[in-house]
Amino acid sequence: MRLSNLRRYLADKEKRHPRLVGSLRRFNRRLQRLQGPTHPAILRNEIAAVSEVLKSPFWNLNYGGNLVHETLEQEFAEYVGAHHAVAVSTGGMAIQMCLRAFGLKPGDEVLHQIDTCVADAFAVFAAGATPIFADINRENFMLAQTSAADEISPATKAIMPVHMWGNPENMDWISGLAKKNALYVIEDACLALGAELKGKRVGSFGDAAVFSFGCLKPIQAGEGGIITTNDESLAKELRTIRNWGDMSKEYGVRDQRTLSWNGRISEIVAAVGLEQLRGYPQYLEKLRDLVNEFTRRLEKFENLEIAVPESGELKPAYSQVVVRLNKSGVGILKSDLMSRLNEQGIPVWHANFEPINQLSFFREDHWQDWIIRGDLDRVRRNYHRVFANSEEVYANSGLGFSRDNFSSKERVLRLVRALERALRKG
After folding, report:
1. pTM (2 decimals)?
2. Contact call for residues 88 and 264 (beta carbons, < 8 A)
3. Looking at per-residue confidence, does 5 or 270 come out higher?
4. Among 252, 274, 367, 391, which residue is least crowded by beta carbons within 10 Å?
5. Which CATH superfamily is domain 281-353+391-424 in?
6. How does 67-106 read in b/e, with b if 16+ C-beta sit within 10 Å?
7. What pLDDT is recorded for position 222?
8. Four-CA torsion 129, 133, 139, 141, nearest 10 degrees
9. Cα distance between residue 187 and residue 134, in whole Å
């Protein structure tokens, strides 16, 4: 029976058969857990919080006092372990604002891995700078040290490590590389809220870090984002830049000195984000327990293993659970395995995005219309080179299991059984 028909049946029979209806409702809830997406999900009092904002006269952060976004900023900074947080309209806008606040100009370069979301590269372009790409390694699918070091030039001004799918990057060597080359560090933590490395949460390591509340993110509010930093003067500049560069509030002068955007977060979105944040620690603890259950059961699959396993020093946030596949050992192509899992209703994707330079914007050199200054020959060589590791991971060895697989123990067991069936066919 389809869920919609079941709901109508329950409504018709509820008064006459309360016990039967109670049993069917419990069965319906179980069906809902096993079917369809489980995110975004209400984690606390989001609906009531939005209602409170709508009943108030203050829907925009420019008006009123004791506003919701201010509470969100305070509690977010405390959770991450940073001194300051600045709420903004999107994660992409957060990247643009950071680069502008760092003082990057046209011709300056920002280094990041080739197989993150194209939003990273586009945000760099939109800020007036130039993205430069580095490869990943094949072990944990993180930024490759040698490749990153090789791509640094005198024009490189910032490095953007990406905590992909909630897996913390190795911030020790990245910080060392940045210090050696006088680079700003901007963490892309959009998928990694709550992830930890050596007892510190991501978002507290770099000069700044960006988070998003958009689609697929750890907490969601439809849109919205936030920047964290330990630098008070940087936070002050970021609050100015998010409001068309108006210096009135932060500097007491009615003036604009920095080319800026409207990067404001709405109070309505901030209210959702705040309640999501307050409910997130309990949610994340449950998610980690369920992923650990999956990890234990994955041990019986000789040629599948978690690419970034949880340890005493490293705790992922699991926006996706990333698995490394030994294609020769399992005797099946990654594409065939994904198809077989999809046929069983298992949400599965790649462990990385397609290499950015394979997208038409880069492959067909449309980027040339948007670079004002810089060494175009060097940029062209970077965009047209082969990033062998990321291509291998995308084509053959990296699987990403959606959080929808880890919303309950039933879903975890369903995933394990689906893997058994899919691999048995091989």
Report:
1. 0.90
2. yes
3. 270
4. 252
5. Aspartate Aminotransferase, domain 1 (3.90.1150.10)
6. bbbbebbeebbebbbbebbbbbbbbbbbbbbbbbbbebee
7. 95
8. 50
9. 16
